[in-house]
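Ligand: nickel (II) ion. Inputs:
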Amino acid sequence: MLVQIPDVLTAEEVRHCRQVLERSQWVDGRVTAGDLAAKSKHNLQIPVDSPEAEQLGDLILHALGRNPTYNTAALPFRVLPPMFNRYDTGMTFGTHVDNAIRTVPGTGGMRMRADVSSTIFLSDPDEYDGGELVVQDSYGSHSIKLPAGHMVVYPASSLHRVMPITRGSRWASFFWAQSLVKDDGMRTMLYELDLAIMETRRQLSDNNAAVLALVNHYHNLLRRVAEL
Ligand code: NI
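Predicted complex:
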């Protein structure tokens, strides 16, 4: 399931991220890539343990916390501290898969499973050419290029790539979540059920017996499949 979520960050938050990133140190992005992915990765990142990454990572986590769509789509259990990358003209990231297991920085080696990948765009589409995130699933390839502050959420199990930048520079935040529901198909069903419940609540009153039964059903399904 691929979900686009608009306005995860306000314009002011995007501006703030950009200002902090402009004065940050940028290093070769291969430091956080798996062995195979590193071969096709050509971009820049700010170090995960830098004060800028920590400060902006908190800002992103705060924004995720207030976003009901992210929470129902990803059902996050743990979110790896957000990272920040940049593709200047000529940079690209060829087709790859993200590592299944990641070590959470600053925890003495705690590991988590990466189920859900997210990218929050920090550049507007008119600031660069190329740079689309292309995600492959069983229905084909999806090309994504969103306004600054918008986010795309997709299964970490997908093959994906970032097309070469032919003009300008593309800045973004990216991160992984371990979901309460590791299976993408099950997570998709729960998400669609939740959307249907929200629409049903809009059309019927909250004390309608059918609404209550559906909400009960949602929670009992989640109880059955959630892993903590
Ligand atoms: Ni990736």
